[in-house]
Design a protein that fits this description.
This protein has 337 residues and is of the alpha/beta class. Helices cover 34% and strands 18% of the residues. Strand 3 and strand 4 form a beta hairpin.
Length: 337
């Protein structure tokens, strides 16, 4: 791989973070916004009946329905509207192939879900594992959930997601595999990963069939990864969040490498095969497991100080022993955060 190709791939992955960084080179400020988010005027008005919304989309010749679950003060939701839907080609492609309806992750309006269940917006968000906003649920014309995106993804991945669903690639392959065979695939030469004192050295025996004393964080990263550099240099070391990882077990894996690993459930695999099995395509992704090897949650989209800090508070407090992350957030956060 040439230097230019490596540089281009890194830019495609991390340019959005760089573009929205605070003046002076700091990480993206993901604290709740003071201004309320306005949805684009081309979003479809909904009566909170998703089967009816889907039927109308199909009748209009669309490939399906996008259900956007967000929050009015969510920094990542603002970023999606500004940096992703703000690009004319993405906006036009979305409108051509999908109707988009918006739900509030904290809302109390009664919604009829695609499967006919009637529940509040908030309950639907919890059921659909919308742990991080924005979450976008892509439904095809038959009402099948074709893809779920949890959290913010830069324009490159979002364009790919639109095409993946609109062209029905989900029927034959995973989104990770679809991305990997793209012209601008985000694959790099094996190179040094970011170092951190809290990472445990290999060999990576993560077997937790006999319970460990602490929860586990597994970092899946890549070499020559701008977003990984931002995570380590600005989000972790630059804010002191790295101290939280000294209180749990943490390992780092190259998601494209054949590094041998024993997984929390005791299987012997290669790091790249485990990442593929988990469906990971974004670097860095951080997966958290409890003392018995149960996956608690994953941060597999863009995450800065505020969002990652909330996750670490959940892990640090061992709140996962009583509540899944979404329900814990509903208890400790103010609606809109």
């Amino acid at each position: 791989m040439t230097i230019i190709r490596v540089w281009l791939a890194a830019v495609l992955l991390g340019v959005t973070i760089a573009a929205v960084a605070e003046e002076g080179g700091g990480a993206f400020d993901d604290r709740p916004r003071a201004t309320l988010l306005e949805h684009p005027d081309w979003f479809t008005e909904t009566l909170f009946d998703l089967p009816d919304d889907l039927a109308r989309a199909v009748a209009a010749g669309k490939r399906g329905l996008m259900v956007y679950v967000g929050q009015r003060r969510c920094a990542y939701c603002h970023l999606l509207m500004d940096e992703v839907f703000g690009q004319a080609d993405i906006r036009d492609y979305t409108r051509r192939h999908f109707d988009v309806v918006a739900l509030d992750a904290w809302g109390v309006a009664e919604v009829t879900a695609i499967d006919g269940a009637v529940l509040s917006e908030r309950a639907l968000a919890l059921r659909e594992q919308a742990d991080f906003t924005p979450t976008i649920l892509f439904y095809d014309a038959a009402g099948r959930l074709a893809l779920r995106l949890r959290g913010y993804y830069p324009p490159y991945q979002f364009r790919a997601a639109l095409e993946y669903v609109a062209d029905a690639h989900y029927q034959n392959e995973s989104f990770r595999d679809y991305l990997a065979r793209g012209d601008n695939r985000l694959v790099f030469e094996l190179d040094a990963l970011n170092e951190a004192d809290f990472f445990q050295p290999p060999p990576h025996n993560l077997d937790r069939r006999f319970p460990a004393e602490r929860p586990l964080a597994v970092f899946f990263e890549r070499g020559e990864c701008h977003a990984c550099d931002v995570l380590h240099g600005q989000v972790l070391r630059g804010t002191g969040l790295d101290a939280s990882f000294t209180r749990i077990d943490a390992v780092q894996l190259d998601m494209d490498a054949p590094t041998p690993v024993i997984t929390p459930d005791g299987r012997r695999v290669r790091a790249r095969d485990w990442a593929a099995e988990l469906g990971l395509f974004y670097a860095p992704s951080v997966l958290f497991f409890d003392e018995r090897g149960r996956e608690l949650l994953r941060v597999d989209s863009v995450a800065s100080f505020y969002r990652l800090g909330r996750v670490l508070e959940y892990i640090d407090s061992r709140a996962y022993r009583d509540l899944p992350y979404g329900r814990w957030r509903a208890r400790v956060e103010t609606p809109g955060e």
